[in-house]
Model the fold of this input.
Amino acid sequence: MKIADTLTYAYCNAVVRGRKGKLLSDLELKNLSRTRSIGESLNVLANTDYRDTLKGINYSEGLKAKSHLREMEKALVQKLIKEEKRILKYTPESLQAILEINLQRWEVRNIKKALRNSFRKTPRYREYIVPYLRDNIKEKLEEVGNADNPKEGADILSETEYAFLADTLSSVESERVLFTAEMALDNFHHERLYEKSDAMGGTTREFFGFEIDRINIETAVRGSVNGIAFEDIEDYFLKTHNIDDEILEAIVESSGIQSALTPLEDTYMEDIIQAKTGKKMSFELLSENLLKKKLDIANKIYTSEALGPGIILGYLTMKDIEVKNIIRILYLKEAKWPTEKILSAVIT
Done:
């Protein structure tokens, strides 16, 4: 590592350590989960770093409940984006390009929402758009969402890096084609991210490499559960990291979700195979286990690197999962889930 980078990491990591102190504690997350209503949950959040985030949003049960929840979700995501941008300002140049691409996941999400709206018009579609778009995309997104169909929407993006969508959406006969385009967007984003982190090496490569493995495992398990042959799904896999094509093929060709995970034994992913006590393995539980592993990795790299990208990457992951937890708790409260089930759904 260059001396200049070392000095910059020292400053940025000091800033990040100060920000980490504002994360919710496990006790605060438990208290949030144990509230009897969304109103009580908002009162708990009013005594945390989120005190101003949800101010002015008046939640009410009934017909407008879902709309209010989407408003809360957007406000929470906006706070997360602002935090990522804040840390980006202090980040050493060698890591900045990677974090900038990582931020663009929100842009990818917005494009997917806009394309879906062009396929099937949704009155409240703008409630799902999060406040992150680069200038060259911002001016086009409204046109994409208002297009008569996804192909027309993709053509609007033909002079951007998303030009590949026009080929993917050459036919819009079914929602499956749209799903293929969404996967192409995700793959484009993650492959760019991995290419940059692979060149940087070390902790950064392994951290974003985990994301590649996570996505490939979920894709393979979906294929297995839906009885799709490997040759029919292999084009959807990202360039592999530690979980190679042989393992992915073995997952796809397995029968049943538990046996589909058996090929992960003796890999660094073997701890995601176990279901929680009293729970049967499911795709939802697998996704939870993968997210929990991501949090474990974040905690590990945060504490193991005094000078380097680990503290930055670890903190940003903790913040991202914290926001996911809050959003999940609020939606489960609205769905009237019992407290114990909500507690078990929180990633800690």
In short: The mean pLDDT is 89.
